Amino acid sequence: MKLDANYIRWFKEITLEDVPLVGGKNASLGEMYCELTPQGVKVPNGFATTAAAYWHVVHSASILEPLRDAMAGLDKTDVDNLAIRGKKARELLVGAGIPDDLWAEIKAAYDSLCEEYGPETHVAIRSSATAEDLPTASFAGQQETYLNVSGYAALKEACSKCFASLFTDRAISYRIDNGFDHFKVALSIGIMKMVRSDLASSGVMFTIDTETGFRDVVFITGAYGLGENVVQGAVNPDEFYVFKPTLLKGFRPIIRKNLGEKKIKMIYGQFGSKALTENIDVPEQERKRFCLSDDDVLRLAGQAITIENHYSEKAGKDRPMDIEWAKDGLSGELFIVQARPETVESQKSLNILEVYHLDTKGPVLSRGKSVGEKIASGRARKIDDVAHLSSFLPGEVLISDTTMPDWEPVMKTAAAIVTNKGGRTCHAAIISRELGIPAVVGAVDATEKISTGQNVTVSCAEGDDGTVYDGMLPFHVETVSLSDLKRPKTKIMLNLANPEMAFSLSKIPNDGVGLARMEFIINSYIKIHPMALVHPERITDTSEREKIGALTFGYKNKVDYFVDKLAEGAGTIAAAFYPKPVVVRLSDFKTNEYASLLGGRYFEPEEDNPMIGFRGASRYYDDKYREGFALECLAMKRIRDEMGLTNLIIMIPFCRRVDEGEKVLAEMAKNGLVRGENGLEVYVMCEIPNNVLLVDEFSRLFDGFSIGSNDLTQLTLGVDRDSALVAHDFDERDAGVMKIISMAIQGARRNNRHSGICGQAPSDYPDFAEFLVREGIDSMSLNPDSIMKITARITEMEKNRSAG
Description:
Layout: E1 8-10, H1 19-35, E2 46-49, H2 51-60, H3 64-71, H4 79-96, H5 100-117, E3 123-129, E4 145-149, H6 152-164, H7 169-177, E5 187-193, E6 201-206, E7 217-224, H8 228-232, E8 238-243, H9 244-247, E9 254-258, E10 264-268, E11 277-281, H10 284-287, H11 294-315, E12 321-327, E13 334-341, E14 352-358, E15 364-371, E16 375-382, E17 397-400, H12 408-411, E18 416-419, H13 427-435, E19 439-441, H14 446-449, E20 455-459, E21 465-470, E22 475-481, E23 491-496, H15 502-505, E24 513-517, H16 518-526, H17 530-534, H18 542-551, H19 559-577, E25 582-585, H20 591-595, H21 617-620, H22 626-642, E26 648-652, H23 658-670, E27 682-686, H24 689-693, H25 695-699, E28 704-707, H26 709-717, H27 735-750, E29 754-757, H28 761-764, H29 766-775, E30 779-782, H30 787-803
Parallel strand pairs: 16-17, 17-18, 18-19, 23-24, 23-30, 24-25, 25-26, 26-27, 27-28, 28-29, 29-30
Antiparallel strand pairs: 1-2, 2-5, 3-4, 3-5, 6-7, 6-12, 7-8, 8-9, 10-11, 12-13, 14-22, 15-19, 15-21, 16-20, 20-21
């Protein structure tokens, strides 16, 4: 049915140039419907009322002057007064109703949708302000959305309420803060076919990491049911990270997955209920499963990249995007229901790096997901509902179950925000990013553990986990200008263990990662001894079996849990620094450390001196650990072959003899890791004097050497650095240690092999770093907190040497 409409535009008639006509949200929907449908981006069909339709409502009812009176002299800092004025404005618009000629066009357009999709089609009614979704102002959640609307009566009521939502309290406050005139902004209503995500899942995705601004990932959040719970932060969603560069090459790079609680889901109102939607509990078994399959995650990421590329091309510059998606539970199809520019991380300067450091730690009150990378402290204020907002004082830390858009005027005065519920794309997270304040979301027990008036410190500077500490803890901010930093000829790499810090640390000028420790990933994320997953029948302790069962829930084959988590952890680090080299050291726990893992005591012998015992290379081909080593190899193979991260280099620790190196390489080959195949390089730790004495022989087996100055010093001097009695004799700068390190560097060069160092010494002692440069070492791997200082010193030293 063709409509000759004055107040209606179908999505197929709308482009991005039509923001003044239909607002940012509807202009974007039309753009995608017209331009991206042929590229596989699915957008439900629909139509929009124009800005003229809104003004027609206002002028037909002669309410323009009363609206101006309602806004005149408004002090937005007076929360109660703002609420009174906003309510008055909304009442005026609802009371105005919808003029007959406008309603006739809306009704006729709805009839056309019903012809396409069926009688009394269920639609979503979405607001779209004519000054929203701009590159520097998101207007996220400022106006209202109504879901599961069907039939003329419900449609008319929802449209009337939607027009009125131009004057929600948060929209009024947001316009004032961003310099928009209330009476130069109109509201367009988008009316689109509902996606039956009430029977499946929905969520939000960004084409940028929302916490660090890392550009090479698509970050997806999702939960069961309709998407409002994810957007508003009423549920702790699943999270997925997909690496863009290798996805575009045809790989399957889901580099990280975090399981959310997903306790509730929003569905259509049940039969006999007046509510259009309602929340119900999600069964326990479903909560412990991801709401999306890997195939769906990859399809969504592909659509996100298509959208980002299109909008970037239109803008003539990179344009990271904030996108809402929904999966239809009837057809299984994935739909895009909104896309707008990301307005926080993409606007930050890429030449200034701010790093927050917590100077001391205190008792932990609560933990959740970190939003941003800052630290703030203040007095806590618990808010239960909107009625108590007026008690909130500027500079306090807002503690609540969740936040709602109506709370925004108060949120703008907070030092930090902490919520029980929500994920990194929820309302509280979005607003805190825009405000540049730290937030901890999904903390579960924050309102129980934190009291009003209590002094707290909110830290988001320690990775994915955001922590609320008791007391006002000292912290400092390090600001670095990256534009002026010169790079030395000596490669400067990072020592890195925690995958959660990888995106952030990749912004520090570097040449890759010289040491990524597998032990941290196993200890912090996996927590189970690999042999306990290979042979669960050997675990007799009931409590231990239950803990292992809880961690591996949803895995039919328990060893897949180990492989998945290890691949995600090391893969995240490899992705963060791609295509620069990332050297991952295979597991180097000592037997007592292995024994502390769940199930470990059933597989580990007791040793009097684990430091020189059953560790490193000696384990990998031994029957006591061979099957566990196979899981490590499978994880590394997945990173390189399935994720496409061939910048990953494997390093063998504590390899005592040449024939031991041969056995390890043979064991790796059995598990699909063949040195030289698909560009695979294998390094060896140079931490035993025998590695130096036989450097020519080891060079035949390995592509590079990484000097572990800690163990090499202990074994050269015969000193246990952990012994209080002799620790004073431990010194990497001893003449004998420096001589053996020099021999290692010269031996590597003689055999055309890479030489690097990953020990603590160059981070602690700048003069030791200078010694390494003089000896001609190829690379130094430093701790992140010392890399800028040492880089500057080495650059100056190289400059002086060349001048001399």
